[in-house]
Write a structure and sequence with these properties.
The protein is of the alpha/beta class. Helix content is 34%, strand content 13%. Strands 2-1-3-6 form a 4-stranded parallel β-sheet, with helices on both faces.
Length: 235
Amino acid sequence: MKNLFVCGCSFLSDDTKYPSQPTFLQQFAQRNSFHYHCLARPGATNYMIRLQIDHAIKRKADFIIVGATSSDRLNIVVDQLGWRAPLAIQHFDYTGYDCSSEREFKDQSFIIGDTIANLLEDRYTAVEQTTKEAIKSYVAELHDIGLQYHMDLCIVRDGIRKLLDSNIPFIFIPGPTTPEQWLWTGNHLWPKDKPQPWDMPHGGAIIGNHNPPEAHAMFLETLEQIAFDMEILKK
C-alpha cells in the first residue's frame, strides 16, 4: 500500500475525539488505498512543518500534502541542556493535541512550537509562568508579525524546493501564505479558485481542524481532481 504523508497545522490535522468526522485527507486515503500518516499538529509553526517535510521524505512517502500556516507562533526550547543538532520533528512536543500525529513519533521532545495565544492560555501545553511573562514581553517589545511572515516564507520556500528535488508527488496548500506568488510550484499548487481549509467555507466547527463535514466534502472533491490531473490517481 502506498503512503500518504500530511504536513501542516490544525487545518490539516485530524481530531481523535471525533472519529465519526474524518477529514478530507483521511477520506482521500481510504478511498484511494493510501496508508495515512498525519504529521500535522494544531498550533504547528512553519518551522515544524518544514521538519515534517524532511520526515516525510526520509520515510519515502509516495504522496505528500503540505499546508503552510500563519506567523503568530513561536518555537521555544523548554530545557537547558545546550545545543543539539540536527533538529528533527520528533524533538517537538506532540502530546495533548488529540490528533493521530501523536502516534507517529517516539517522544524525544525538548521544544514547544505553538501559537502565542495557546502558549499564554495553556490550551494544549503548559509552560512555566516565567516563560509566559517572557513571551508577553517579547510580543510587546520585539515580535513583528510582518517580519516573521517573511522569515516563514523563506522556510516554506525551502521546504517546497526540497520536495521538488525529491521527485515525490506533492500538493501545496498555501493557506496564510497565499499572498505570495507560488506559481513556480507548477501543478503542485492548490487552485486559487477553490476554497482551501483556512477559508472555512461552511463556517467554523468545534472539531480541532475547524471545518465541518460539508467543507471536508468540498476539499475532498478538489483534492481528488488535482490528484487525477497529476496522474496520481487514475480515472
